[in-house]
Specification:
2 copies of one chain form a homodimer.
Chain A: H1 15-33, H2 39-51, H3 57-66, H4 73-85, E1 89-92, E2 97-100, E3 111-115, E4 121-124, H5 127-138, E5 143-154, H6 156-162
Parallel strand pairs in A: 3-5
Antiparallel strand pairs in A: 1-2, 3-4
Helix pairs in contact in A: 1-2, 2-4, 3-4
Chain B binds a DNA duplex through helix 4.
DNA sequence: ATATCGAATGTTATAGCATAACACGTCAAG
DNA sequence: CTTGACGTGTTATGCTATAACATTCGATAT
């Protein structure tokens, strides 16, 4: 799905369902790769899935602390860094925030759509954008190893509300 | 040039020349638009042009203070914000840093290529990437108002050096 | 000329984001 | 049963950014 639009991104959907799906896949992936999805890490991913939007590290930390985990910044940052490495969470540079990946395990250099009204973050079809970027860079002899592609704008719902 | 590769981006060039060009255009633009390119602002732009790479706000501040301007953060941030508004400077979200625009006055939502070795920042052909992004967003009904497109990788020189 | 207003600058203080460095506990391999 | 790797917790600190207020400067209208 990394290169196909996710029809549910902005549509109404059973969120518990989609979170459950993602958690299940995350656990499967971790078992496969030998990565240890420990309690803090697992809970961190759940927090991001429940929020269904990008959260700052300190927001995550607050929730972790409420659940009995440590309440110092490294607790959150370490869990988040781990999840980012595993491809289970993405960092949104523009927001200095983190969001759960909605389709882990499928290779993708993601494209994010951030609504300036409701702050929802969706992942969009990345492949064509990435191709264009590779081409543009290639013309200058630059080799792209990783990319940050983020769009700020209005999601369908907020656009409708504004009209 | 916003949609054409800048042949000079990674090539050897007379940097004093290209900086002078940019400064001249910046001043022309400011006169046109009525924006006031005051001493701090002007010096800030010069600092970024001289560095020829992305600088953090505090790096800029340090240099400004050395030149007799105020040495508190807002001094640098205000000048930088002004220059960003005028399209004379770009913010690189991934680096929390700022770089002078190499072709001001030409409408563009820029694409940045950041070398992970030498930290040079170049602007690449933006139009095709932006089109792909608009298309991907459009499929989800999302309207793009602004974009952050940044690639991390190796510039030609560092790639050659590494080989 | 000078009063007035707005924009730019300077300064103090504080908020928000992120990491270095060390201590402790656990668990598996030798 | 010791050793070493890893995960977690904690202290302390550094970097990034902005809010709020004081002061200065220059353009404009009187």
């Amino acid at each position: 799905m990394s290169s196909a639009p996710d029809a549910r991104a902005f549509a109404h959907h059973d969120h518990a369902d989609c979170s459950g799906d993602v958690m299940a896949r995350a656990e499967a992936l971790s078992r496969q790769s030998g990565a240890r999805l420990t309690p803090v890490r697992r809970r961190t991913l759940e927090i991001l899935l429940e929020a269904h939007r990008a959260l700052g590290a300190y927001d995550v930390l607050e929730r972790l602390a409420a659940d009995g985990f440590g309440n110092q910044p490294p607790v959150a940052y370490r869990a988040l860094d781990f999840l980012v490495e595993q491809g289970l969470v993405h960092r949104i540079a523009r927001l200095n925030a983190f969001a759960a990946c909605m389709h882990p395990g499928e290779a993708h250099s993601p494209v994010f759509l951030i609504c300036r009204e409701c702050n929802i973050v969706a992942e969009a079809a990345a492949a064509p954008v990435r191709s264009a970027l590779d081409a543009a860079a290639g013309e200058l002899g630059f080799v792209v190893e990783g990319s940050t592609i983020e769009a700020l704008g209005l999601c369908p719902a907020c656009r409708a509300a504004a009209a």
